[in-house]
Structure formats: C-alpha cells, structure tokens
Design goal:
The complex is a heterodimer of chains A (297) and B (318).
Chain A: H1 2-9, H2 21-28, H3 30-47, H4 49-52, H5 84-120, H6 122-136, H7 140-151, H8 155-182, H9 185-192, H10 197-208, H11 210-233, H12 245-248, H13 252-256, H14 262-289
Helix pairs in contact in A: 2-3, 3-5, 3-14, 5-6, 5-8, 5-11, 5-14, 6-8, 7-8, 8-11, 9-10, 11-14
Chain B: H1 2-27, H2 32-41, H3 43-46, H4 51-57, H5 64-78, H6 91-126, H7 131-145, H8 148-163, H9 178-212, H10 215-222, H11 227-249, H12 251-265, H13 270-280, H14 283-311
Classes of the chains: A mainly alpha (297), B mainly alpha (318).
Chain lengths: 297, 318
C-alpha cells in the first residue's frame, strides 16, 4: 500500500542530478560520447579482426605489391603485396591488447603506491615521493628504450615496462586524491573506532578515490598506445612481421612510401583516431565523474 | 637568492641518488646470456674481446654494491662515465658532441610550441564558447593525439612527392653555418613543438579564463585601458606563471620526443646516440645517456623554478 502511494508521489520530471550516466554523457558531452562510440567500434574491430579482415595479416602476394587503394584493397597494399586494411585491423588488436593490459597494470601500481604513500604520510611518503621525482625525470621513451635494449624487444616486456613506467608516474594523482580524502570526518571516525588501516583503506579510502582511478585508466590507454607505437616505430616494439601500427610506419615500409604514400596514411590515421577518441572520452569521463581533476592533464 | 639556489641544489641530492639507483639497476638487469649474444652479434668485438674481457669491461666481475660504488665514485670524483665498449672513446666525449644538438632541437621545439600555444590559448579564452574557441580546442586535442613520428614521416614523404622538396640529410653544425643549421632544425623543431603545444594551449586558456575574471582586470578595463594592454600586460603575465611550470614538466616529453624526431630527420643528437648504442649493445654509452638525460631534466626544472622570480614579483626567494 505504502509503495503505491510512493509511486504516485514521484514527480514527473526528475531533477537533473538523477539522470542516468549515459544520458548525461550523451547530452552534456557529445564529443566525449562520440569518442566513446569510436572506441567501442575500434575495440570491436580488434576483437573480430579474424572475421572482418578480407586477407590474412601476413598474406604475401608479390603480384599485387604497392597497389593504390581500390575496391579490392581499401587501404592499398604494401611492398610485399600485403593488404594494408587487414594489417590495420590486426594492428588494432595488438594496440588494444597492449593498451588495456599495460594501462591495467599501470593503474594497479598507481593505486597501490598512491594509496599507501598518501595514507601513511610521514617519512615513508617522503621517500616514496623523492623516488617518484627521480623516476619522472626520465622520459618514458628513454626508459623504454633502455629496458628493451637489456631485455630484448617483445610484447611482455613492452607491456610490463609501460605498466611500471606509467604506474609510478600516475601514483601522484591517486596520492593527492587520497590525501584529500584522508582528512574526512568518516575516516577519522573509523580510526577512532579502532578500525585497522587495511579496513579503512579498503572500505573508506578506495571507494572514494574510484573516480580518479577510472579516469586515470582511460587516459592511460591512449598514452600506452602512443608510446607502444613509438617504440615499434623505432624497431624496438613487438618484432615484425607482427602488424603493429608503429611498425607499419617504420622499417622497410618507409622506403616505399615515396612510391605508395597510402602506406604512410592508414596506420597513422588509425592511431590518431584511437588516441583521439580515448582522449575525448577520458576528458568527458573526468568532467562527469571527478570535476576536481579538470585541467590536470 | 643565493641561499635559495643552494637549498634547491641540496634538495636535489636525494632525487639524484634515486635517479642513479634507477639508472644503475635498470641497465644491470642484463641477463648472462646477453653477453654471449653481444659477442656473437657484434662483428667488431668477435676477434677483439673474450667473454671474460667483456665482463671485466662492463665491470660485472665484482659484487653489485661495489659496482655501484665504483660507478658513482668515478662520476662524482672524476667526472668519468666510462668508455664505449667497442670504440674506447670516453662516453663524456660523445655526450659533449651530442648534447648541444638535442638541446638546440629542444629549445626550438619549445619556442615553436609556445608560439603556437599561447596566442591560440589567449584567443580561445577571450572568445570563450564561440565557434573560434571550439575550433581551437578541438585542434589542440587533435594535436595531442597525432603521434609526432607520423607527423614527421608525412613531412618527409608528402612534400617530396608533391614538390620534390625533402629535408637535408647531411647534418650541418651550428658553428659551421648557423643559418643552414637553423634551416635544417626548424622543420623537426616545428614537428616536435606541435605535439607539445596542445597541452600548453589548454592550460593557457584555462589560466587566462581564471585571470580575466579577477578584480584587477575589471579595474584595468574601468581605467579605460586598451584591450591589448589589459589582456597582455595585466592578463597574460599573470596567466603565464603556471604555463612556465608546465613547460618545465614537459622537458622529459621533449627529450623523449627528440629521440624519435632525430631518428626520422637523421640529426646526430642524444637520441640517435642512444639508438645506435642500443643497436650495438654498447652498455656504457646507454648508461651515460640515460643518466645525463635524467639530470638534464632535473636541472631544467630547477631553472624553471628559479625563473619564477622574473615573472612573478610575488615570489620572493627566501
């Protein structure tokens, strides 16, 4: 009976704060929503590369080398007659795998280091922050090159190093969020009730720094993909013949670009599109979830 | 002022210590079989050095803490970064040749970045939420997404196809012919600067928006000052302070980006030195470049902090 009266009492137009997340995303942030859609589209392309690609990723056909874009080969063919569209699709898979896994590792590290350093404070925080300072003085790409020179190129090394690299750098953002949450009344209340640090971190701090964590992850995906392609461009990423976008722009392909300029276009456009969409989507998420972080990147 | 500089230098010491640990242990990850690989890969070395000699040359024959102390000791007391494994040239000699080239490229890129970012950022803030503002903002997010190596590749490929123009391949030193050198560096500098300008543009816009709402700006308008005077002298000067910090924070990006740009345009700077050393597995050179890049970034940040005093009279160095 009570439930029925309640239903009637609900006003017809909801207050703006109660609108669903998706509605807010599409109405307030059209560009971000578009980025999200492009992102979903490219992830689908990556997932179903096997089905979508008209040719194999390394299917060589010397008779059809260096053909301009046509109905048979939408993005043309390269110096070995491989279909550029197919290679771009498989390249999307590599980029998405590396981007998501390295960003996940990075976020995990950022959260662990940031929460512990920010919550404990004091000397441990001081030492950790000096280490982070030192770490951030080295350009990402230079650390990557050095690590790859020691461990040799390959997918696990790339993912692991990028994860560690961005993880430590990103811990700053989580730390500052934790420092502001730490002083909240409910944290002090939990402390005075005798809750263990672990309990407070898990139940009170973590849920409240979740928005910056989500935003950090999204923006990191774009950063990782750019860094990975830069590394592949230098010939230090996932080794050929794997169809990485960065790799397609470098190496033997570069000498043939003067005969086939489309070789220079397709992988770069894919890369720009993917990174652009993660960036605008990440920005929109940040504005909707965590307005404090606005302009921090 | 002198005390302030001294204190800042002292505060740099712990960071330098951690940086040396990072450099040392990253490169010391070398697994044993890499030495065999080095010997088999490098034609230069095959007849010159035995396995034991390489291990000794890399200093791997003593316990790891002793290796670290030796390494730090020779840097601090002798300014010695070791010798190239294959050419027996001191690493410092390489660095002395290459560092100025990268610094020049970085400086050009920084100036280009600011020249693109600040005017557009200011315009965007003054015409907030107009069509021009939206175009400028979309352009800046786009610049952020375009990889500089792709931009660089296109600059190499398309002008050459359309107009038969291509950047000079042979590097001309600044001391030999400054004008030719500048003509050579400007294209890579613009490519590198374009990527950096995106973030600066956004920050300039945000800061200008904030500053333009201040009371003293209203006062300046009320005094009847002209628009350029209000915007440039009263607005921009105050908005630029965080922008300067950002330029300092971008130093690692700048040097990282330079590695790729130097590779594309064949400019013999630190980046090309590092890549060559990586290809030859010349670990002393790799270690040297790695360390110097980190220290250079720290010093740039220090200089940026010190330059606050020039821009912002409110900052007093105590």
């Amino acid at each position: 009976m009570g439930a029925a009266t309640l239903t009637i009492a609900v006003p017809h137009d909801e207050p703006p704060r109660k609108r669903g997340f998706m509605t807010r995303l599409f109405r307030d942030k059209p560009l971000g929503a578009m980025g999200g859609l492009v992102l979903v589209f490219m992830v689908l392309c990556a997932l179903f590369a096997d089905v979508l690609a008209p040719y194999g990723q390394n299917q060589v056909s010397m008779l059809e080398r260096l053909q301009a874009p046509s109905w048979q080969h939408w993005f043309g063919t390269d110096n070995l007659g491989r279909d550029v569209l197919s290679r771009c699709l498989y390249g999307a898979r590599l980029s998405v795998i590396i981007g998501c896994s390295a960003a996940a590792i990075a976020t995990l590290i950022s959260v662990t280091v940031g929460i512990v350093s920010g919550y404990l404070g004091g000397r441990a925080d001081m030492i950790t922050q000096r280490f982070v300072d030192a770490w951030m003085s080295f350009p990402d790409l230079v650390i990557l090159i050095v690590v790859v020179s020691v461990l040799g190129p390959g997918m696990p090394q790339t993912i692991g190093t990028l994860g560690l690299l961005l993880g430590i750098a990103g811990s700053r953002i989580i730390r500052s969020a934790v420092v502001s949450v730490r002083e909240n009344m409910y944290v002090h209340a939990a402390q005075s009730l005798g809750a263990s640090s672990l309990h407070i971190l898990w139940k009170h701090i973590l849920p409240n720094v979740l928005p910056p964590i989500i935003v950090l992850f999204t923006t990191r995906v774009g950063t990782v993909i750019l860094a990975e392609s830069g590394l592949a461009f230098l010939g230090l990423g996932v080794p050929p013949p794997a169809p990485t976008w960065g790799g397609m722009l470098s190496g033997s392909g570069r000498t043939f670009m003067f005969q086939g300029p489309w070789l220079a276009l397709a992988p770069g456009l894919c890369l720009t599109m993917l990174v652009y969409s993660t960036n605008v989507f990440g920005d929109a998420l940040r504005d909707l979830l965590d307005p404090r972080m606005r302009g921090s990147r | 002022m002198r005390n302030y500089v001294l204190r800042r230098l002292l505060a740099l010491l712990p960071t330098l210590f951690f940086a040396s640990l990072i450099v040392f242990f990253t490169v010391r990850l070398i697994p044993g079989d890499v030495i065999d690989l080095m010997l088999s890969q490098n034609d230069v070395s095959a007849d010159k050095m035995s396995r034991d000699q390489v291990i000794r040359a890399l200093g791997l024959d003593v316990p790891i803490w002793e290796q670290y102390l030796r390494w730090v000791g020779s840097i601090v007391f002798k300014g010695d970064l070791g010798k190239s494994l294959w050419h027996s040239t001191p690493v410092t000699e390489y660095l002395a040749q290459r560092l100025p080239v990268t610094l020049e490229l970085g400086l050009i890129a920084m100036i280009v970045g600011l020249l693109i970012a600040v005017p557009i950022g200011v315009y965007s803030a003054m015409r907030q939420d107009t069509k021009g503002d939206y175009i400028a903002r979309s352009f800046s997010i786009l610049l952020l997404a375009v990889p500089s190596f792709w931009l660089g590749t296109m600059v190499m490929v398309f002008p050459s196809i359309w107009w038969g123009w291509s950047p000079a391949i042979e590097y001309i030193k600044f001391t030999e012919d400054p004008w030719q050198n500048f003509k050579q560096m400007i294209v890579p500098g613009v490519v590198l600067g374009a990527a950096l300008s995106a973030i600066t543009m956004r920050l300039t816009r945000t800061m200008m928006l904030e500053v333009l709402r201040q009371d003293y700006i209203r006062t300046a308008w009320a005094k009847g000052l002209s628009e350029p005077l209000v915007v440039l002298r009263h607005g921009l000067r105050n908005a630029l302070i965080p922008v300067v910090t950002l330029v300092g924070l971008q130093a690692p990006l700048l040097i990282g980006g330079a590695v790729i740009i130097e590779q594309i345009f064949v400019i013999p700077g630190m980046g090309l030195l590092l890549l060559d050393a990586v290809n030859q597995r010349d670990y002393p050179v790799i270690t040297g470049v790695f360390l110097v890049v980190g220290v250079a970034v720290m010093l740039i940040n220090l200089l940026v902090d010190l330059s606050y005093g020039l821009l912002d009279p409110k900052v007093r160095f105590r």
